[in-house]
User: What shape does this take?
Amino acid sequence: MPREVAVLAAIAFAVAVGFGVVAPALPVFARDFGVGHTAAAAVISAFALMRFVSAPLAGRLVDRIGERTVMLAGIFFVAASSAVAGLAQSYLQLLLLRAVGGVGSAMFTVSAVSLLLRVVDADRRGRANGLFQAGFLIGGLMGPVAGGLLTELSPRLPFFVYGATLAVAGTIGALALARTTLHERLGRQDDEANRTSLREALRHRAYQAALVSNFGTGWALFGVRSSLIPLFVVEGLKVGAIWTGVGFLAGSVAQALSLVSAGKVADQAGRRPAMILGGSVAFAAMVVVTVSSTLPTYLLAMGLFGVGAAFLGVAPGAVIGDIMRGRGGQVVAVFQMSSDLGAIAGPLVAGVLVDNLSFGSAFGATAAILVFGPLLALRMPETRYARQAEPVDDPSGPDEPTLGGRARPEESGGGQT
Assistant: This one.
């Protein structure tokens, strides 16, 4: 596995830790300015909204100036805005600075994923994506614990810690990735001629399936799970809030333990079966919690969903790398936007359904969203060998070419490519 994968996973870990550190402090800090709960929540929404709307810009920047430059700029963008947010003297300042941070987050995410997909060949892309996702997952588990302790001391302190963490991660990334050689060193004319356009990608059934799967993941994992499960545990199951944490932990552990297997399945069996399996398991988890409102079935559903989320976090991203030629900033940006859109829309729709119908209806709607992913995956072609051999300078060693994608042996005459 190229060393760049480990570097990107470490950066993802640092970003997730920092984000988790700030999460408990954000609403508390906002409330210190005398605003209501809605205004406090708007600070969180501003970050997510700006991350969503600025993703296309991040994609264009990646296509124009390269993944590494955009990624490091995004990291330092978030680091600076977070540190300054800790010095905010008004609610408006805090709101604007968090919005600026959302722009930097989009720059980091789009460029990091694009870079990750280009430094590994097709046979290792699923496992590389799994390691990258593991960095986010483990960091996301550790961050809130530290954030809660720091918030007890001062709600401003987590912002400074977040800024410092990102500054260190960005510096390490700048040094470790300095020698990476990718397609952007080719001539501009050749690069543009061989680049996969967004229009071309949107016509690909595999890309369509990846977008729908990622939308469902954002809706269920980043949206409904975070916003609805805490209320369901207390109001629906009538148990203590501690069981929210237990359920989240069960899902996270199941997801972490399944990431390696998910990567292997995606690389060895193919992206298509991995997406079908992941989407089906996630769908089954939502069906379980829809039809049965008991504590054991809730815990079972959370564990099942963690397994499904592992496959859905690995396989669709590998598909993007398979169909992408050259810099794929806009292709990756739209892929990321599909998840963000789900995370924004999911809680809103689920909240309306709970207010007017029931928790079961909200979970049922989530299951209905999730089922479209595996259904579209059924009609997609396998993409693991979608591209013919494409020379890429090896970023991890000698200046000999490696393969950005590998042709089927029978398509390449059976010889070694």
